[in-house]
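batch job 7 of whatever, protein = HTH-type transcriptional regulator MetR
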Amino acid sequence: MHLELRHLRSLRAIHEQGGLARAAEILNLTQSALSHQIKALEEQAGVELFLRKTKPLRLSAAGMRLLRTAEQVLPLIDSAEAEFRAVELGRAGRLHVAMECHHCFDWLLPVLDQFRRAWPEVDLDIRTSLALKALPALVRGQVDLVISSDPEEMPGVTYQPLFDYAPTMVVPANHPLVAKGYADPADLAGETLITYPMDRARLDVFSQFLDPAGVTPAHHRQVEQTAVALMLIASGRGVAVMPDWVLRAQAGNPELALLPLGPDGMLRRLYAALREDDLSQPYMAHVLRLVRTEPVRMMRGLSYARTTRRMPEDGRAGV
């Protein structure tokens, strides 16, 4: 027996409408075409599917068994077709995000909360286990968007600039560097440096500040939570370098001082990496807009103990 989806749809329509004429209208067929379709199906099955002498037209026992199959299969098919249509129209898809910055949770979670309300049909997830291998995972299709400050040339990957940020040193308020007004790499040689538990190459304080100068801090301590790191610093147990937007709430903290790296400060740029083929997706364009605006709101009002650079509200760095 060669059973097609159109057979199941026709059987269901006839049962629901109670006759060939109304069912044919629903199915956009002529009554004759529908009658021939059912007759051909019955010949294949070797049994009658309808009790033709009844009004309204009723299914036979064999027809009822086939109807149960239709009621199980057709909703699944209809759902799959709706999903494909949504994908084609750009309403559905997948957005699995990985980050190469431990502290990005501070602004990314509010962004994704806004996003999921606007795009409920997009499968959303954060893949934290891929933090150190996020860009290769993007190429392999394991994730769809990577937050990174270190672009690498990779086939089929595009980097969309998000915003500039200033890596900023946090020290106790009574630290000698406060009088100097900024930090040089040599100033960290005798310090306990507190960082997030990340690969050293992914930490700005090493890759952009200490390593180029050939300086190693006296001690290196890793701490998971920003709040814990700040408590340790306030207690005089170390110093840290964090993005300015992470420190937005500490600008008025009397126990801490925020200092630029170098007399002119340092500026870095954060990017969203994604596959070039996904750039045209409407939901991807929306999430990019969100990740550019939320951090800017977080940075408003930030000021250093001494600074020569400031982040304007449009997200671009100013001199």
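notes: The chain has a mean pLDDT of 84.
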